[in-house]
Hints:
This protein is globular. Helix content is 47%, strand content 10%. It is built from six helices and four strands; from the N terminus they run H-E-E-E-H-H-H-H-H-E. Helix 1 (6-22) crosses helix 3. A four-stranded mixed beta sheet has the order 2-3-1-4. Strand 2 (42-45) and strand 3 (48-52) form a beta hairpin.
Amino acid sequence: MDRTRGFNDIFLLVKKAVYNSLGRRRVGLMLGLSDLPSNVAAYYTPGVIILNRKVLDKLRREVKDQRLFNSYLFHILLHEYLHSLGYDEGYTGELCYMVCRENLGDEHPATMMARYGISTVIPSLKDVEECLEDMAEPTLGKVELVKNFDSENVTYLA
């Protein structure tokens, strides 16, 4: 994960880790970036994972360690990918920790985020909550779709 660059590289690692731990996978997801409320890191709506662009921009400014930034992306994309597989919020947190621990080890930043919360590893994100339980879907403004996301199984020319 230390050498990966970009959303798609990290998402490929997420998919491999989930398949390794749970034996499940899916294809054809899109990734969007949008300016969401500051307490929402990301959410899943059918077929699309939406990441909070403001949170990512804040991280890019404040976190100089690429491994830590990639670990955050891994954790968030894993959480939302598990939702895309049909897991509810209550079980997703437990699965995130299990998948991270089995594939990355106990001391990896993504595992620590899954076990103790993002803000224990990145304190400047203490206001960000992944949990959308009992929360209405955020109102979307403009969504920027990320090109070539989850494209490993695309074998046709568009």
